[in-house]
Design brief:
Layout (H helix, E strand, L loop, with lengths): L2 H22 L16 E4 L4 H5 L4 H12 L11 E12 L2 E18 L2 E21 H32 L1
Parallel strand pairs: 1-2
Antiparallel strand pairs: 2-3, 3-4
Length: 168
């Protein structure tokens, strides 16, 4: 069997499995942690040289987040809550691998047993992620599609959590 054929089949299998796993990983909130979150800021971790060589660009990623959010019912002018995107990429020969993580974070004061008046914290309220592999020349657009998909999952969870709030 030709080694190139094996690599193609392997890549297709890995991408299919990771998208399948990401698709099955819904409802990441516990006890309605997105309830009452009405505005978020978009925060994208800076891309390194490897990510840029795999075709990733911050403006494209921000647009993919906005596309995933659509008309969700919350705004993107937040301060305390952030939709945080982290992508780590590794180019290898003709392919690129990327780990994609999307989180909703709260940054602010939170009462704790040793700090009843609150301590400055960063809490993750929601998270999801996946790993993809694709040819270098297609990797940027594929990562953008996966980011949009993950953000749409967050929006579904946000709607579910906030529907519970309006229901009582």
């Amino acid at each position: 069997m030709d080694i190139k054929f094996f690599k193609i089949i392997f890549a297709i299998t890995v991408v299919g499995l990771t998208l399948g796993v990401a698709n099955d990983a819904a409802a990441q909130t516990v006890h309605g942690t997105l309830r009452g979150v009405t505005n978020l800021e978009i925060t994208v971790e800076p891309l390194d040289k490897d990510a840029r060589s795999c075709g990733l660009r911050i403006p494209d990623l921000i647009e993919s987040v906005k596309k995933g959010i659509g008309n969700a019912g919350f705004s993107l002018d937040g301060y305390d809550y952030a939709l945080y995107l982290r992508i780590s990429s590794l180019p290898r020969e003709t392919d690129c691998f990327s780990s994609i993580d999307v989180e909703v974070r709260y940054v602010g004061k939170l009462p704790l047993p040793a700090h009843p008046n609150g301590a400055q914290v960063r809490a993750v309220l929601w998270s999801n992620g996946t790993i993809i592999i694709s040819p270098s020349n297609q990797h940027g657009p594929e990562v953008v599609s996966v980011v949009t998909f993950l953000v749409k999952g967050m929006v579904e969870d946000w709607i579910q959590d906030n529907a519970l709030q309006s229901a009582g």
